[in-house]
Design brief:
The protein is about 0% helix and about 50% strand. The protein contains no helices and 11 strands. The strands form 2 sheets. Strands 2, 4, 5, 6, 9, 10 and 11 form a 7-stranded mixed β-sheet that branches. Strands 1-3-8-7 form a 4-stranded antiparallel β-sheet, with no helix packed on it. A hairpin with a 4-residue loop joins strand 7 and strand 8.
Length: about 120
């Protein structure tokens, strides 16, 4: 069992930056692929970024490639999402997730955090 708690969301102007954190409790954090998804009002939850257990592999949605960076610190049981050059269309609730595969689809992730709101003003 893994519990995930996100933090770091907030209100930022377009062009600004935020860093999201996701703290995990439970055993075996480094075994899990970790990912960030987001969900805007009235839209389906969508993939943002994922990272393998060792941190050696990362994948990004085309919409965030070059602006967002996912990383993890297995000693701290934490995964991060550095978000730069934020745009109003990045506004959403951002969710951290853990699964046994490195995947871009929600069904491959077994554990989810409660989400953190990111709002980007124009």
């Amino acid at each position: 069992q893994v519990q995930l708690v996100e933090s770091g969301g907030g209100l930022v102007q377009a062009g600004g930056s935020l860093r999201l954190s996701c703290a995990a409790s439970g055993r075996g954090f480094s075994w899990y692929g970790m990912a960030w998804f987001r969900q805007a009002p009235g839209k389906e939850r969508e993939f943002v970024a994922t990272i393998s257990g060792s941190g050696s592999r990362t994948y990004y949605a085309d919409s965030v490639k070059g602006r967002f960076t996912i990383s993890r610190d297995n000693a701290k049981n934490t995964v991060y999402l550095q978000m730069n050059s934020l745009k109003p269309e990045d506004t959403a609730v951002y969710y951290c997730s853990a699964g046994t595969a490195v995947s871009t689809t929600t069904r491959d992730y077994d554990y989810w955090g409660q989400g953190t709101q990111v709002t980007v003003s124009s």
